[in-house]
Design a protein that fits this description.
Helices cover 0% and strands 61% of the residues. By secondary structure, the protein is mostly beta strands.
Length: 127
């Protein structure tokens, strides 16, 4: 299993900036991608941004141009730089890791990609 721990959440004013960090540990497999998701009150969890080991980056339209993802694959960490915060950005932000792991099947050992989640860190945008 992979354990993810987020940090950096807090209260930020509209237009302000905040940086979130996430560190992974305890993996028995290999992390192939990491990213950030968020869930606002009364809404479903949505993807914010992801980055694969191959360097492919995805941003949600709502954060494109304002948020930036960065990864340190050697340290199995990921960060999210959030600029120009708006009240709509208020949510619980969770770190995600896609991990390629061995699994037992009828045909023997196979590799499967599993998702792991951190407990989340709260970001509140308020004046």
């Amino acid at each position: 299993q992979v354990h993810l721990v987020e940090s950096g959440g807090g209260l930020v004013q509209p237009g302000g900036s905040l940086r979130l960090s996430c560190a992974a540990s305890g993996s028995a497999g290999s992390i192939v991608a990491m990213g950030w998701y968020r869930q606002a009150p009364g809404k479903q969890r949505e993807v914010v941004t992801t980055k694969t080991n191959g360097g492919i980056i995805y941003y949600a339209d709502s954060v494109e141009g304002r948020f930036t993802i960065s990864r340190d694959t050697a340290k199995n960490s990921v960060a999210l730089q959030m600029n120009s915060h708006a009240p709509e950005d208020t949510a619980n932000y969770s770190c995600n890791a896609a991990v390629l792991e061995e699994a037992h099947s009828d045909s023997g050992l196979t590799k499967r990609e599993n998702n792991y989640w951190g407990q989340g860190t709260q970001v509140t945008v308020s004046s």
